[in-house]
Amino acid sequence: MIDRRTFSATLIAGVATSLFVRSTKAQAQPAVSARNVVLVHGAYADGSCWSEVIGRLQPAGLNATAVQNPLTSLADDVAATRRILALQDGPTVLVGHSWAGTVISEAGVDPKVSALVYVAARAPDAGEDYTALAAKFPTPPASAGLVKSGGFAQLSEEAFLRDFAGDIEAAKARILYAVQGRISDTLFSGRTTNAAWRSKPSWYAISTEDRTISPALERFMADRMKAKTIEVKASHLSLISHPQEITDLILDAAGHSG
Questions:
Q1: Does the pLDDT of residue 86 top 70, yes or no?
Q2: Strands 92-97 and 36-40
């Protein structure tokens, strides 16, 4: 005979173990073959930041589409992503850079999504306060470079060139600065209701020279989701400075590597 307290503790432990095993199995599953890739950009950027990656995915036979996020709210960005997912004709790899990691964590529960790829990206748990999580890690220098006006914000040119695009040739970085997406002052306050990485196989590219998100925080999130992980000696914009490495990671998630 066991008392009620012991029984309850055993039951809770069993449920927790069951959830852990399912999560581990989800991440251990081989990649589903996918021919579609949907690429979601982060803050201070637009869909063109994926051009170098798209130019490598297309010759590999993949149908790549970049989302143009309004950067006005989490709900608006998720809606823009869902509109593009609705156009896909089969299994789709959903890729997010930076802020878009939050977007794909919410939108990635879509049944068409076969895998998730995070590129130097946020990866909050459902309902998690990402700001509180990030505060446990070193503060990245880019945070001090925000310039606010009229309810929106952008990075100053100095912060953009030094802390966001630090390993990109200056002339190209200035072009990227000129087309950066302005974000709503309240964009980062949105919280997810889903954590798609808990049920979908996930990949993560850590930028070891990142000055926009702490590399230590990136490692924590990649480890937490049990993602297949690579480390790239790159700034926050590894998708532009190291597009082949990012492309190879996406191809792996799509079951096209090797």
A1: yes
A2: parallel
Percent share of the chain, pLDDT over 90 = 86
Phi, psi of 35 (to 5 degrees): -110, -5
> CA 177 from chain center: how many Å?
21
Single-letter amino acid, residue 206: I
Would you say the pTM of this structure is higher than 0.85? yes
d(CA 145, CA 137): 18
Q: Please provide the distance, in angstroms rounded to a whole number, between the alpha carbons at the two ends of the chain.
A: 56
Half-sphere exposure of residue 106: CA atoms within 13 angstroms, side-chain side: 22
28: which residues sit within 8 A by CB, 6+ positions away?
A: none
235 Cβ neighbours under 8 A, 6+ residues apart = 164, 165, 166, 167, 168, 207, 209, 210, 211, 212, 241
> For 136-163, what is each residue's pLDDT tens digit?
999 999 999 999 999 999 999 999 999 9
